[in-house]
Predict the structure.
Amino acid sequence: MRTVYVNGDYLPENEAKVSVFDRGFLFGDGIYEVASVLGGKLIDFPAHMARLHRSAGELGMRFAVSDDDLLAIHRELVRRNGVEEGVVYLQMTRGATDRDFTFDTEKLTPTLVLFTQSRPLIDTKVARDGMKIVSIPDLRWGRCDIKTVQLLYPSLGKMEAKARGADDAWMVRDGVVTEGTSNNAFIVTKAGAIVTRPLSHSILPGITRATLMQYSRENGTAVEEREFTLEEAKDAAEAFITSASVFVGPVISIDGVELSGGNPGPVTLGLRKTYLEESLKRAL
Ligand code: PDD
């Protein structure tokens, strides 16, 4: 049975509990991070913790644990659960108190939960065959840059994509693509440049996005940070997504329009290889 971490304790998963009054449960008043594990080591870990601090800061949430302790908890869970490949999920909420729209953060003790999921991340169907994308309107709130647990719309969006015979959805707001339901969206131009929209309140500042852009610049791939429309995406040479659990995921069609002949594109596959090689070197 899996061991999970809850507020200082390592427990069998069926004994791990949080209060029914937890504001994460009642109000979605919680933030999270997902860090991937390859070869038993954490990928891009410092960047994930930096974003967790930012999310807490933006919501005025107390941060009651040190970064050293967070690294130690991640490592201990990976060790206890024997995770070679998979993810560590971390959720922090404002804490538990009787239900009320107002709250006094200083009087609350944040809830901290971590668990692992072992699963293949490198040799996957998405990596081999690519993903079909459909578009949906982006109906999320105005602070998508904060990694909160308010994931109902993205969850329903992915369900809609599956119902429409696709693997995931890209969201569109004001005529341009914002991001995927749980990933950042990229296209590759016919000239070989990679394009992704600039950071704003409309998208999550993806860690994989930032790392991949850095590696791309280092290896001479042109990077254009600008908005793009669905029409431009459908006419692009290639498209892909980035996220901590997929890394670089090839997109083979958008709303039924095939890209790169319906196969993962060469630029995308090259970037995926670079990302994996470089990340493994830096894994903790
Ligand atoms: N999702 N955009 C959204 C809306 C996301 O939920 C995610 C991550 C990303 C990619 O961010 P990163 O590269 O830091 O993983 C972009 C995680 C993996 C999830 O919810 O499971």
Summary: The helical segments are 23-27, 45-59, 67-80, 125-129, 152-163, 207-218, 230-234, 266-282. The chain has eight helices and 15 strands.
